[in-house]
Amino acid sequence: MAKIGITCYPTVGGSGVIATELGKLLAEQGHEIHFVASQVPFRLNRVYPNIYYHEVEVSNYPVFQHPPYDLALAAKMAEVINREELDILHVHYAMPHAICAILAKQMCKRDVKIITTLHGTDITVLGIDSSLKQMIKFGIEQSDQVTAVSNSLVNQTQDMLDTNKRIEVIYNFVDEREYYRKSTQELKKDYCIEEHEKVIIHISNFRKVKRVPDVIHAFSKIVHDVPSKLLLVGDGPEYSDCYQLVQELGIENRVLFLGKQENVSDLLSISDLKLLLSEKESFGLVLLEAMACGVPCIGTNIGGIPEVIDHGETGFIVELGNIDQIASFAIRILTDEKTMTDFSSQAREVVKDKFASSTILGQYEELYKQVMSDG
Ligand code: GMT
């Protein structure tokens, strides 16, 4: 059994979820898990034996123009590595977490192994900034092992940073005990959705890259042919523009803005179709959550999305911004009973086969074993 430190952005979507769920599964296997973060990760919502939380306190002394999160994190990591005698520090995001881990290791002079998992945004957004590029490259190359959540992200990282560092693909996963199709038909009534109406869902942090207006435009075509409602779940910078667009298109009585929601699996369980039409997406964890609940998905031919959706099997892959194509595939799924039931059961099968939490957990444990035996 290993003593593993985990650092993630505790409030950031998919990466925070994966880091926390992985920590929980590892703890269930008997590993000792130490979260080092600035807040309790939001999925760590009860007491778990074998899991410890070490808070990074960022002091804001008047001499600092900006509170030094990175240095406070490195100092806390070093303290925890020494005191808890960690074997491994597994950080999510190269920037700044891998850099902090390297600094912490140098400070404490213990041979802790550093594993960095790339989730996308640090490469596809930060990697474009040339002043940060060299630092991200340094963080990746100095890590003992690096993983990424899709083949697409591996290729993009190696190209963008011009590095030959080996990066292993370990896909994301969902906790099958939480994500399965539940009988929540009452919920449909609660939201005043008629029984015969189909439910289309989009979940994101409403950043520009998520292209939520494309979801709304596609829906305004779909609703023309199929009696349906659109659930928009999440919140973020584009939220009010989306609200305005819905008014302009005159579909306000068909779109439900639900904001941030905790029990997303309940909402997925009343949904018939999931749309993720992003222009950047290294994986699309929300797709996997939908598939686990038997919801067919339509996603763009971008990043890791085609590694999650099997075109014509569990949903459809569409070209970015092609509203007509999105609407026509959606109408096919929503109106053809056989396509719907086939895609729904195939989606659940793919989650069990390709993305099973036990398989992914095993891949991380194997990596930990390897890195610890590397001397
Ligand atoms: O998508 C976001 O804006 C959040 C971001 C994150 O850091 O949580 O998501 C990234 O990591 C997720 C977990 O691996 C992936 O499912 C998302 O595709 C990825 N987002 C992007 O690549 C834009």
TrEMBL record:
<dbReference type="InterPro" id="IPR001296">
    <property type="entry name" value="Glyco_trans_1"/>
</dbReference>
<dbReference type="Pfam" id="PF00534">
    <property type="entry name" value="Glycos_transf_1"/>
</dbReference>
<dbReference type="Pfam" id="PF13439">
    <property type="entry name" value="Glyco_transf_4"/>
</dbReference>
<dbReference type="InterPro" id="IPR028098">
    <property type="entry name" value="Glyco_trans_4-like_N"/>
</dbReference>
<dbReference type="InterPro" id="IPR050194">
    <property type="entry name" value="Glycosyltransferase_grp1"/>
</dbReference>
<dbReference type="GO" id="GO:0071793">
    <property type="term" value="P:bacillithiol biosynthetic process"/>
</dbReference>
<dbReference type="GO" id="GO:0016757">
    <property type="term" value="F:glycosyltransferase activity"/>
</dbReference>
<feature type="domain" description="Glycosyl transferase family 1">
    <location>
        <begin position="185"/>
        <end position="349"/>
    </location>
</feature>
<feature type="domain" description="Glycosyltransferase subfamily 4-like N-terminal">
    <location>
        <begin position="12"/>
        <end position="176"/>
    </location>
</feature>
<protein>
    <submittedName>
        <fullName>N-acetyl-alpha-D-glucosaminyl L-malate synthase BshA</fullName>
    </submittedName>
</protein>
<dbReference type="InterPro" id="IPR023881">
    <property type="entry name" value="Thiol_BshA"/>
</dbReference>
